[in-house]
Design goal:
Helix 2 (31-46) packs across helix 3, helix 4 packs across helix 5 (108-116) and helix 6 packs across helix 7. The chain has a single domain (4-210), classed as Rossmann fold. The protein is α/β, with parallel strands linked by helices. The protein is globular and about 50 Å long. A hairpin with a 5-residue loop joins strand 5 and strand 6 (198-203). The chain contains 7 helices and 6 strands. GO terms for molecular function: phosphoglycerate mutase activity. Keywords: Gluconeogenesis, Glycolysis, Isomerase. Pfam families: His_Phos_1. It catalyses: (2R)-2-phosphoglycerate = (2R)-3-phosphoglycerate.
Length: 212
């Protein structure tokens, strides 16, 4: 039984390119983001991966990444489950602001705490802890049972919704998660043991046109 779980952060979005806090705002992918999504799909196919189920958020950048990746794998007809629980962290009043402008206004330390810490909320928004409080129950009830039944599962989501999940999968504490970066368009491949712990983890990063 494979018990395969693959996590992919969406490709570069227009607001990633513009260095804006995005959160629950809904910009589309850039040309580079489209290329990253397609490249991830080609790489996964070349490595022999396939999927029985796919999950994504209610935001277009993740949905489009998922669709493009599956199309490159020849799995364009695979049913995809969309759920708000996998949405990016809500940045509240920071949404739409340039990150450099935010640092100039509030200082590097405060913006770093809002972006990277586990339990510090930006004004009107969610901390990573808050994000985990919706991501993890959904993972346990909707995604994990598919994996444990032997299905090969893809999750295409966001930097912070995936950070919350990887924090638990990799058994990171609040200090370690501060340094955790999830790269756009780079698949994280997990194989689970029968007790749901991690048997193996692989980061599939490629060079050039072959992958991210």
């Amino acid at each position: 039984m494979e018990r395969l779980l693959v996590l992919v952060r969406h490709g570069q979005s227009d607001w990633n390119l513009k260095n804006l806090f995005t959160g629950w705002r809904d910009p589309d992918l850039t040309e580079r983001g489209v290329a990253e999504a397609r490249s991830a799909g080609r790489g996964l196919k070349r490595e022999g991966y396939s999927f029985d189920a796919a999950f994504t958020s209610e935001l277009v950048r993740a949905q489009r990444t998922c669709a493009l990746l599956l199309e490159e794998m020849g799995l364009g007809d695979l049913a995809v489950v969309r759920d708000r629980a996998l949405n990016e962290r809500d940045y509240g009043e920071l949404s739409g602001l340039n990150k450099d402008d935010a640092r100039a206004r509030w200082g590097d330390a405060q913006v770093h705490a809002w972006r990277r810490s586990y339990d510090v909320r930006p004004p009107g928004g969610e901390s990573l802890k808050d994000t985990a409080a919706r991501v993890l129950p959904y993972y346990i009830t909707a995604i994990l049972p598919r994996v444990m039944a032997g299905q090969r599962v893809l999750v295409a989501a966001h930097g912070n919704s995936l950070r919350a999940l990887v924090m638990v999968l990799d058994r990171l504490d609040g200090d370690a998660v501060t340094d955790l970066q999830i790269r756009t368009g780079v698949p994280l491949v997990y194989r689970l043991n029968a007790d749901t712990t991690i048997a193996a983890k692989t980061v599939l990063a490629w060079d050039g046109d072959a992958g991210p």
